Amino acid sequence: MAGGPLDTEGLVTLLDHHGRRQSDERFDDLASRLAPSDLRDMYRAMVVTRAFDDAAMALQRQGELGLWVQSLGQEGIQAGSGKALRASDYVFPSYREHVVAYQRGLDLPQMLRLFRGLEHGPWDPSEIGFHLYTLVIGAHTLHATGYAMGMDRDGRVGSGTEDDGAVICYLGDGATSQGDFNEALTFAAVTNAPIVFLIQNNQWAISEPTTRQSRIPLVHRADGFGIPSMRVDGNDPIAGYAVTSWALEHARSGNGPVLIEALTYRMGAHTSSDDPTKYRERAQEDYWRERDPIARLESYLTEIGEFPEEFVAEIEAEGKEMAERARTLVRSWPAPPATSMFDHVYAHPHAAVETEREWFERYESSFTDTEAAR
User: Fold this and answer.
1) Which of 300, 317, 332 is at the close of a domain?
2) Which range of residues forms the domain containing residue 359?
3) I need a surface site. Which of 79, 84, 106, 196 has the fewest CB within 10 A?
């Protein structure tokens, strides 16, 4: 396959790609916490988010969005890890964690204000424990580590109660090549920060395969920092839940950071500006299409008799409603005044920004004056 052979060393899998339950004595007890209703919740999150994802991609192609970043194919690890979170935990996403955003209560169509260029912060992170998307690759790993250090100093770790929390930081394989990530691992390790770094290894850093980013599985990046780590099948929502639950409990208990490498695949383009047909083969896409996380969980739910027809109809209707609302909302948003780019740059008024605003207003008015003179 393009990008080199698939290395599955040490991979935790509890559902094979046909949706058949597998056993792993290290994680079977954690997986058993999931009731059928929990599994359906994860299925709902994946299906509804994919419907939204498809609608957003279509809106970008129609010129309604400046950019879109799909989560297509990566829903499994997001649904599993998101299900493992408590309200007391805090999420630092990169820019394609749409399933986790849905699980944390974000109204997904409002997210599109960011991708339409209307505002950088379409939601309040403090309300849902889900930080703003970070488009600068890897930068948020340091922010996440600092937040985790603060949680520790505020006494929100290691009490043994439900109030204990941890940070989970999502990043891609490409971000592991950034200096920020390696600095974050250093700080997290030496301060014993309560943070889980979850690498969604989707095989491609834009057009660069993982095999050209690291000579060893990314999970081993943690070894040099003394951080415990685990490798999980990222298209298996149940394994994703179990491994993330273990990691979060480790961090919440005051035992320090954990690194997870989730082996998954980006079925779509890196962003709407990318053309993956230029650098990867159809055979590789077909291989991963057979391992679709939604189909895998659907097969398992069907096998155990927990996939009623009324549930399927309900999810399909919700997905259609989400997509339609996204289309309607995006097309209803007027263009903001150009001067809004100067708003909210800093928390308080800033002399340099105000000077730039005044210059820009004079510049804009010069066109009005010219038209009036005519």
Assistant:
1) 332
2) 338-373
3) 106
